[in-house]
Amino acid sequence: MLCRADLCNATRWQSMPVYPVISLPTLPSLTQFMPEPTRDLHLCLGDQIISTAISSGYSELLPLLHDFHKIAIFVDFSNLKDATLLQDMAYVDHVYLVEHKNLMLMAQYKTNPPSFLPADMNPEETLILPLLFQALTLYVYTNIRLIPIAGSIRSTLVSRIQITVAELPVPMLDVLFEAFPQEVLWIMFLAGTSSVEVTQRLFFIGHLKWMCQSLALIYWQDIEDKLRRFLWLHKQFFHRYKELWMEILSYIPDDKNWDTTG
Question: Are the beta carbons of 146 and 75 closer than 8 angstroms?
């Protein structure tokens, strides 16, 4: 309980956890507890995010993303009411480790952003990292802990993503989207889907409109395929993504052949 309170406090204040990560015995692999068809659902990261994470000194982000992906797939396809299963695979410990690691990296970036970068790297592209750390924090609550849509912590986390995007220098969001289209689209859909306040939701819809147009995403299946290429999204909330897509469609000019049912 103390560890959980520590992580909640760090999330609330965007600070480093007070307590260092608990030394745990070697945890069993999540893969062995997953249904057979899910074992091939591997995370495929783009070259640009891999290069940026490594060059900026945040290579730990890459295995962390894989761990998040495996946990989310487990949550989506397994019976979370099976207490014996959760105990055998040390589910609580797996979640604790990824959440602690992400909060540590987010706090590290906040106090010590990358400074020594390769000469051929655009330093502005490292701004994808704080956005991704914030989105992963929200992801914990939406797709792993499955906190209700109106939860106050979720509202706080969505607001932080909105503020971070809004405060990007012009036209920095365009730069990030060009370099990381898969990741930025995923982040904006996650935040937009989790927002309940009208003005805030319209903020994400406005950005997602031109992103979908830029990527020529005109069918729902196009959107779903794009989102599935990054971190796995829980089926319980996926209908909300389609609802958001329907709202985006209403903001797209009539002369575009945007499908509403595909």
Answer: yes
Cα three-residue angle 204-201-133, rounded to 5 degrees: 55
In whole angstroms, give the CA distance from residue 158 to residue 160: 5
Q: Which uninterrupted H or E stretch holds 94?
A: helix 91-111
Would you put residue 14 in left (φ > 0), alpha (ψ -120 to 50) or beta?
Answer: left
Question: Omega of the bond prior to 35 within 30 degrees of 0, cis?
Answer: no
Q: Which residue, among 62, 77, 71, 56, has the nearest Cα to 183 in the 3D structure?
A: 62
DSSP per position, 162-195: HHHHHTSPTTHHHHHHHH-HHHHHHHHHHHHHH-
pTM here? 0.89
Helix (H, G, I), strand (E, B) or coil at 55: helix
* pLDDT single digits (tens) 190-229: 999 999 899 999 999 999 999 999 999 989 999 988 998 8
Give the per-residue pLDDT at 167: 93
